[in-house]
Design goal:
This protein is of the alpha+beta class. The protein is 39% helix and 22% strand. The chain contains five helices and three strands.
Length: 124
Amino acid sequence: SDGDVVLHAVADALLGAAGLGDLGSRFPAGPQTPAGISSRELLADVVEAVGQTGLRLASLDLTIVGSRPRLGGRLTDIRAAVAALLRVDEAAINVKASTGNLGGREGAGRGIAAEAVVLLESAR
């Protein structure tokens, strides 16, 4: 996987914080959005759009919810990968994993979700 659930949550949080709508509005399902476009490409477009507003990422808090796969040992790698995609220092990124108290689809291992909160600051 190219990290769809994580990268989509980050992209949506960036768009929302910048007042630029959401990922579904920017890349609607249909012929205007290339089939099979990678989440990395979507996120790169969002980072560019946010930058054009004169804002930049100050911090990102990311929570990945699911009981499978176990992510505890991979959080540092995920943090580094997300920081690289966002072109920011790893210190600006916080990544956590949760089983969701083993409730719902995520806790039962039938799904995975991600929640992201970003703080933007003036790039000027």
